[in-house]
Amino acid sequence: MLKPTRLFSFLIVFLIFWGNPVSAQNDWQIIDESLNQKLNSDPNIALEQAQQILDTNQYTFETNHEAWFSLNEIIAHAQVNLGYFDSALVIATQLYEQHNAQTYPIYRVRALLLLAMLSERRSEVKNVQAKSLEGLKLLKNVKTPHPILKADLYALLGTSYRSQADYGNALKYAKLAAELSKSNLPKLARAHNQIGVIYDYSGNFELSLKHHELSLNIRRQNNNQQGISDSLYNIGEIYRDMQQFKQALQHFKQALKVDQSLGNPYHIANSHGKLGQVYLAMGKIQLAKEHIKQGIEITKSMKAPGDTGWQLSNMAQVYIAQGRFDEAQTIAMEALELALQADAKRTEQTIRMTLLDISIKQGNLKLAREHIELLLSMPNTGLQYQQKLYQVSAKLYEEEGNAVDAYQSLKQFVDVQKKRNVDLQKQQTARLRQNVEVIRQEQELNLLLKEKDLQQAQLNNLKLQRGIVMLIMLLLAGAVLMIYCKQVTKQKMTDLTASMLATNLEEKNQLLADVSHELRTPLAALKLSVELLEHNIEPDVNKAYARVHGKISQLDNLIGDIYRSAQFDNNVMQLNKERCNLGALIQDIVSDFEPQFQEKPQSLTVSKLPSNLMCTVDPERFKQIIINLLNNSLAYTYENGETHISIDVIDHGSTKKVQLIVADSEPGLNDIELSKIFERLYRVESSRNRDLGGSGLGLAICRQIVLAHGGEIVAEQSALGGVAFKVQLTINNV
User: Fold this and answer.
1) Which one of 38, 124, 182, 233 has the fewest beta carbons within 10 angstroms of its own beta carbon?
2) DSSP symbol at 690
3) Do residues 70 and 32 touch, judged by C-beta distance below 8 A?
């Protein structure tokens, strides 16, 4: 899966592409530049992002040819950097075959560049030169100049000539690449690095170091990690050639660390090989052997014969240092065969010098002389190698007692030394010229960097201005939206308030009508009794007075219930809570009601009450709940019926609740009637009517008291045939 940093960068690219298809077409150059930058800093991310974008089919050969080609090109370049040469070769070959020179000359040149790069990584020198020259020939026939593309081809040509030890042509093409790369700092850094390597191989360490430092500075400013590694690697080579092994070791170690973070096997193998050479020169043979062995394993897996030959030649030097000359001879011959296969002349010279050392160590003077003659006959054997070869030849002739040939070899040694002195003088003159040129290039580079910084500052300023404009627009849009939402909310609140007022007014009117109706019945009966008494019509005066007192009591209860209900509605119900025993409260009330239940008759039973169920409640209000429920049961249950009371503690997860149940026998209620039973002044006309007494507010008051305690009350069908009222109060909250 993708790492958090990779996933984030891909999402940005994805949103740019898919947020607006038209915008994605216009912004392709920005995305292309971003992906190309990642090729140098993290080729794995570049490979993943380019492949994911290509898989979306947002860009195809037909819809956007340039974007489609660039994505394939980036994928191939990333695969080359990561050592996936076979996969890259498939893509490069397909791109080459799909674009003929007449219709798509530039795309064909770019495909040739990929093929040449792959050949260079596999040490196929002739293929590098053939593909590069083919690309340069095509560019001559194109009207529009493509300096960077031409610079890339020149750079590859220079590298191929350098591997053949043809430093004249190598320097020529490297300088051409540098001249064409002035407008592209990463390419310019690459050219300086290549020129520095050629000067190093030519023995001009001062100029070599100068160019490498220029290259390193540019790459650091552009955060080109792979370029930084290359520069560190090449500077390490200079220090190695100058016998400053500690400095060389530091640079090679740092280069290897960067290479391993980027995962490019080609560079990792080279860094291991150079570390092996330095450790061998320092006498640390085991460390040298370990690094060279790792380099051999990597180059063999890459199928790069030239690089493998160079690594094997390093291992042969390790065996020579250990005195294992036969093993050194075997591995050196294997290395020579690979170098010849890859046409790597410089590597071939290095291996033949190693074979010369082995033959001398083994005392095989005839074979040593053959190696010397062969090396001297090679066209690109440098003066330094020639001088060493004539010196060794003179020593061999001297050991054989052949004074004439020994003298001749010494004479040739002196001639070469004179040539070297002349060359050194020429190099010093050239060095002075180069120093002046380097100073000029530094000035030009500084101007380019300043110009780039100015352009970047202008770009940042433009982005900032656009950002400010966008921010202002967003703020304005937000303000408009906020005002709109506020108005909508205000209107909704106005409508809701009006609706609530209308509902409250309607409810109040209905309540007044219901209360008037409830008061009218006992008042009418009371008025009739008083009139009968007033006109002496009532036959039984005592019974009439009893009826008057009963109706007055009924009116008093009704008014009291209305008052208690109004307290809850107006949120002024006061609870005087205290710690009390609920079981004892229930027992007191049951004792008061037992005579009334016996008189009806109706049985009243109580389950075994908990001995010490302590809760914090308002005892008078809690009693009112039980009283109202018992009155309700007493009034509406048929004669010879039964009423049952129970109280228990039940668990509700992390909380405990007290549950009071008052259940009675027939008559029962249906579900619709049960859902309305707690409404004020509601009566079930068929069974629990007004003639049975009561205000019609008792159950509503029970519900209000329970809610004031933070509990709940429900009415269900009772197992006894009537109604079961369940009251639950949370112990922790009561």
Assistant:
1) 182
2) G
3) yes
Distance separating alpha carbons of residues 80 and 53, to the nearest angstrom? 19
Integer Cα distance of 349 and 329 in angstroms: 15
Which architecture, in CATH terms, is 578-730?
Answer: 2-Layer Sandwich (3.30)
Distance CA 412, CA 390 (A): 7
Strand partners, 646: 661
State both tokens at 712: 């709940």
Name, in order, each residue with C-beta under 8 angstroms of 667's C-beta and a sequence gap of 6 or more: 636, 637, 638, 687, 688, 721, 722
Residues 568, 708 contacting (CB under 8 angstroms): yes
Nearest to 724 by CA among 681, 657, 669, 656: 669
Predicted confidence at residue 16, as pLDDT, reads 44
CA angle 192, 154, 97 (to 5 degrees): 135
Other Cβ atoms less than 10 A from the Cβ of 348: the count is: 26
Q: What is the CA radius of gyration of the chain?
A: 52
Burial class (CB in 10 A: 0-12, 13-18, 19+), 658: buried
Are both 460-572 and 578-730 of the same fold?
no
Instruction: Work out the mean pLDDT of the chain and round it to a whole number.
Output: 79
CB 728 within 8 Å of CB 712: yes
Per-residue pLDDT at 734 exceeds 50? no
Rounded to an integer, what distance in angstroms lies between the CA atom of residue 496 and that of residue 588? Answer: 48
Is residue 294 within 8 Å of 111, Cβ to Cβ? Answer: no
Residue 6 is predicted with a pLDDT of 46
Report the pLDDT value the prediction gives residue 723, as an integer from 0 to 100.
Answer: 93
The pLDDT of 129-150, averaged and rounded, is 89
d(CA 395, CA 382): 20
Q: pLDDT at residue 36 above 70?
A: yes
Q: Are strands 642-652 and 603-606 parallel, antiparallel or unpaired?
A: parallel
676: Cβ–Cβ under 8 A, 6 or more apart, which residues? 682
Angle between helix 205-221 and 185-201 (nearest 10): 160
- Report the amino acid identity of residue 18: W
Phi (first) and psi of residue 685, to 5 degrees: -65, -30
What is the residue-wise DSSP string for 128-176?
Answer: HHHHHHHHHHHHHT-SS--HHHHHHHHHHHHHHHHHTT-HHHHHHHHHH
> For residue 202, how many C-alpha atoms fall within 13 Å in the half-sphere facing its CB?
25
User: How many whole angstroms separate alpha carbon 384 and alpha carbon 321?
Assistant: 23
d(CA 500, CA 508): 12
Dihedral over Cα of 433, 436, 442, 448: its sign: negative
Q: Is the dihedral of CA 619, 625, 629, 634 positive or negative?
A: positive
In this predicted structure, the answer to whether residue 691 has a pLDDT above a threshold of 70 is no
pTM of the model: 0.46
CATH topology of domain 460-572: Helix Hairpins (1.10.287)
CB 647 within 8 A of CB 614: no
**678, 597 in Cβ contact below 8 A?**
no
Residue 607 DSSP label: P
Domain parsing of the chain, residue ranges: 460-572, 578-730
Q: Lowest mean pLDDT of 38-47, 90-99, 187-196, name the range.
A: 38-47
Q: Three-state SS for 602? A: coil
CA-CA-CA-CA torsion for 274, 276, 280, 281, nearest 10 degrees? Answer: 20
- Residue length, the chain? 734
